[in-house]
Amino acid sequence: MIAQLSPSLTTPDYSDFLAALKTQGFKGEVGTDYASRTVLATDNSIYQRLPQAVVFPLDQDDVACVARLLAAPAYLGIKLTARGGGTGTNGQSLTDGIVVDLSRHMNRILDIDPRSRRVRVQAGVVKDQLNAALAPHGLFFAPELSTSNRATIGGMINTDASGQGSCTYGKTRNHVLELHSILLGGLHLHSRALGEDELVRECARDDRVGEVHRVVRAIYADKADLIEARFPKLNRCLTGYDLAHIRNEDGRFNLNSVLCGAEGSLGFVVEAVLNVLPIPEYSVLVNVRYASFMDALRDARSLIKHKPLSIETVDSKVLLLAMQDIVWHSVAEYFPEDPDRPTLGINLVEFSGDDIQEVEGRVAVFTEHLRTDKTVERLGHTLAQGEESVKQVYAMRKRSVGLLGNVQGEVRPQPFVEDTAVPPENLADYIAEFRALLDGYGLQYGMFGHVDAGVLHVRPALDMKDPRQAALVRPISDGVAALTQRYGGLLWGEHGKGIRSEYAPAFFGELYPALQAVKSAFDPHNQFNPGKIATPLDSRETLLKIDEAVMRGDLDRQIDERVWNSYESAVHCNGNGACYNYDPNDAMCPSWKATRRRQDSPKGRASLIREWLRLQGNAGVDVLSTSLRRPHFLKSLPQRWRNSRAQREGSLDFSHEVYDAMAGCLACKSCAGQCPIKVNVPEFRSRFLELYHGRYLRPLRDYLIGSLEFSIPYFAKLPGLYNKLMGAPLVQSLLAEKVGMVDSPLLSRFDFQAVLNRWNVEPATPQRLARLGPAQVEKSVIVVQDAFTRYFETPLLASFIELASRMGFQVFMAPFNPNGKPLHVQGFLSAFNKAAVRNAGQLQALSDSGVRLVGLDPAMTLVYRQEYSKVPGLTKAPMVELPQEWLLACITEAPISEVPGTFRLLAHCTEKTNVPASSKQWIEVFRRMNLELIVEATGCCGMSGTYGHESRNQETSRVIFNQSWKRMLAEEMPGEPLATGYSCRSQVKRLSNRALRHPLEILLELYRNI
């Protein structure tokens, strides 16, 4: 049995501060639970720092309340750190104090002024969210990031972020017009470019705002020569306390150069006014392939002369990982492979502008250079033309950060020297020495970056659980820091300093005290993100050390190696945050989008299960042995009842917090398909639920859902009685209040037997199939039934039978057997394994005949190729095809008749994320039938099997539906919407009172009209 866990609590001094905060009028949430703290203990770096608590301000007044209390004499020892998307690679937002999360509530776009090209936003607005709002005005916020779908504007400002296109568009600082910040004591700072008269007035103020203006003005005046000497002349210049740009080009004084890149170490940035730019009318991306990565780097020198918008580079390691990822199906055409001459490096060179002819003329000159120039060997090039094509290729490049974490084994690329910047003309020679340094340690590594800006991301591969390998962080960091300085560059060229700030004193030399003076003026007691960038003057506190801060590996090595390997889909989450995708029309993690709780994301759930495994091991529990020795249901009932009673009476157990996070998962498996690391929450969620309910009682609801496939055939014998009972108000009330189920579907009254008789459908048995000749095998199909389309949506199953029969196929019906998905979702893994072995054996016997098997519902059908492949003792899982996979193999030419109109496909989450080609397959099927099908970008419908029918999920289910599907169905768009998932169609019927058809029904209508 698993252990009861009582992890560390918030210390008394922080508890006192939080209690006082509530009395001061703080309106937001305060979290001291271990789950919230654990989830925010990591980012995308190698570090882990457990905060004392997390607070979620509702608005600017809440932030001022925190900062005001922080200045009280009793709380000068309290430390805190602002946090946005939490995707930093250097521990920028990690703290052992209080996390102030500005992303949950403060995420509104306050004003868009298209005429003046200005926007006003709160700190928690996500970059892609802003650009989606700007797109109708033909505008965009230029600084580009690989994490743009989850990086917040506040986070971008605090790291002075930049990425692709920085040589043209600059960094975040170049687009910040005004900032609104809350300083220590709750004072509001409105920073902007100031004329001399305005500067004099600000300096004359008798408060902290006046002091910071006076200090920074004096530093700029007194240290001009040192600043000129120490600050490098690079496109990426310097992040954090950028004294070199205190004066704008027009001479005006601007504190924003200090605040941009300050990593929250000076105060809270709560609001920003930004400059936005017109979206270029036309873009072309030239994808150049090379036989070696060094050729790609050396070639950049000549390519830059053509003044493209940007040049991005990717090495072979990233390319190979991309080829195994969901992203590759959309970009493979741009990177044709020659087996004899493999591509080991690429440069992505973008040209853009408003005049198509001018852009194409520049591209023509550029491609002629590629054809005639022989200084570097190139394997060839392709063109991605137009906005959508360019976005597809950049989507692959953007996933590079996450993809590097998905190599096999324990030795994986780690981010700790990954954003160095040197003058572009030095890049190739610099990288050659960089590689020699890593080769000297015998390390593998991956590389990608922005060669036009001289920035390259290099991630040495280490197993951070191995103390000897973790110890290499120090000598490698020291070596790279010295190397970059020798080449006139920076260790921190793009992603901020964070815990690597310890190199700042050596880099700045005698100018470093000036940075300390800035810190002292803003934060004299070192309370804002201490240990980063600079310490106050005369402070006894020091900067954090890269090898003294707690690393993830320090805690990970406490997990038994067998357990670690068994739970690899959870523990290998590297924190890249792809699951924080803000886009409501993207399938990734609907529960996170609905609740905005980090623990309700794949990253959050992976963090919790990783910590839970560590604590169980430290408590002496072997979870693998516990899984094999499941307690007898009846014998363990008294103890589970006592444990559950103690839970109701308030007994603490971290397992309950983990359970709450796991229970909120829809098990849609979008994470398994879309996460670059392939974090598979439904898999480890099921395992956790099984272990958890070995200690605590299960709700009756779980048993009803888990047994659904077994019981429904019996209920179907009396559909009228079943439906009458389920529709009775008293029964509905009892189900909702006592069982926790609502809106249970009713059985179909459709005469299925008549369909079987009409189309001469035969039962599928090995004996009958063995009598088929080769030609008959080719013209036969076996329908694999699932509980939902067989008993609740029988007309759809009948439609497929009729369609296949009209196409000239003999239809065989496989016996109905539970495939076990509801069991797996609820964590009945022992029962699921038994059902899977039994069902797989029968289906494989049918498949051995050569006749193809087809299942209708995507979620149920994909269980055969996913969950079945991991069942102990199941050596071979049957291949059951999706309808469109089968149709593509069968349809060669369209019938004469046509069905008029355009159709829109709203695909099932599991299907489109785990079988990336599935939507394109439907498009091709419709094209062959002379029909037009448009695939809509949609998020989750909010149903996902029985999730939407559970009372506890009602509110969240509706929020998820409203975020994407409701708007998609309400919009006046040409074409009939179609849905492939049973759960999707039932959710639409339930919440919009609208019946959506399956694509199969359109094809059947066409065949009926022949």
- Number of spatially distinct domains: 4
Overall geometry: globular
Could you give the distance between the termini? 64 Å
Strand percentage lies at 5-15%
| Main beta-sheet strand count, sense and barrel state | 8 strands, antiparallel
The helix tally amounts to 49
- From the 3D coordinates, which CATH architecture of the largest domain would you assign? 2-Layer Sandwich
If you consult CATH, what is the topology of the largest domain?
A: Uridine Diphospho-n-acetylenolpyruvylglucosamine Reductase, domain 3
> Which bin fits the share of residues in helices?
40-55%
Overall radius of gyration: 30 Å
Number of strands: 28
Structural category: alpha/beta
**Name of the CATH first level of the largest domain:** Alpha Beta
| Averaged pLDDT | 93
**Model regions low in confidence, pLDDT < 50 over at least 5 residues:** none
Report on this model:
The chain is an alpha/beta fold and 1010 residues long. The chain folds into four domains: 1-406 and 417-435 and 447-458 and 489-535, Uridine Diphospho-n-acetylenolpyruvylglucosamine Reductase, domain 3 (2-Layer Sandwich), CATH 3.30.465; 580-697, no CATH class; 719-881, no CATH class; 902-1008. Helices cover 42% and strands 13% of the residues. The chain has 49 helices and 28 strands. Strands 13, 14, 15, 16, 17, 18, 19 and 20 form an eight-stranded antiparallel sheet that branches. A six-stranded antiparallel sheet has the order 5-6-11-8-9-10. A five-stranded parallel sheet has the order 21-23-22-24-25, sandwiched between helices. Helix 7 packs across helix 8, helix 39 (794-806) crosses helix 49 (999-1008) and helix 43 runs parallel beside helix 45. The radius of gyration is 30 Å and the shape is globular. The relative contact order is 0.08.
